[in-house]
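Same chain as my last thread, 340 residues:
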Amino acid sequence: MEIQNRNTEYTGLIDQISTVYLSGKTSATAAINRAMVEAYWEIGKYIVEFEQGGKAKAQYGEGLLEALSKDLVLLHGKGFSVSNMQRMRQFYLTYPIYATVSHKLSWSMYVELLKISDPLERSFYKKQSILENWNVRELIRQKKSSLFLRLAASQDKEGILKLVNEGKLVEKPKDILRDPYVLEFLKIPEPYHLSEGDLEKRLIDNLQSFLLELGKGFAFIGRQYRITLGGKHFYVDLVFYHRILKCFVLIDLKREEAGYEDVGQMNMYLGYFENEEKTEGDNPPIGIVLAKEKDELLVKYAMHNISSQLFVSKYQLYLPDREELQRLIKKELSASDDDK
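reply #2:
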């Protein structure tokens, strides 16, 4: 018994040391990140101020960054390539007030943000990176999938500016919706001949990427979730729980176009989860019929007098047309200005 107690105490000691060590390591990494972001901002500031110094600018001209890179690499080694020096300069010019620089983002995150030429789009990705705690890989994927443009294309001017200034906040069921969902990470070429079951399996096999596309707050519960009504078994393709909205989210996949019967079936699923699965503290479940195509008029009438918690969205297996989305957004912004 004494040896067992001693082992238990020793295990506890290991856990305590590990917790303190990992906490210290995380804090140290965060402190280093803050220090480096601030240092790069200050370097950018020094470069810009030097360039504005009249005689100094004339003496070095266009070769300033090349000269700095060469001399600083000799002094300090890596980290001072010409491209990195250009990014530091751009960093200061983009965020001339240091208070607008977030310590929650690493230098590599800022490098990706600086590649975005449009200030509205850059502001959105900065806000969303902080809100959803993205890493660099996740930020790159969301940029590539044109998340901002997809969300903004369905908004009026006020909604677009809210996205820019606040990011995509999740406060009500409609806020989790995206239309279309982009599933390019499945790497399925068009035309494709997958069954709904195959599509579902690929999504589960790429669950991390799918959760990123769904957005913040989703926790996976299960696939082919069985419910029994009147002695008959039915299966919900994918079931999630949303930690922010505190409710189940049911997703039914459709290989082709969503029909009125799909809306009715999802409404039945919602009724079951509302009465049989929801526990104290849960909000009403949300249902999403996710299809390759949808007829807006058919969906409108199929959903007449049906729960406002039910949505029909499209998915696509390729990246969206950025230029077309940009045209839609510019048209909305300019039309709002013309109305004044």
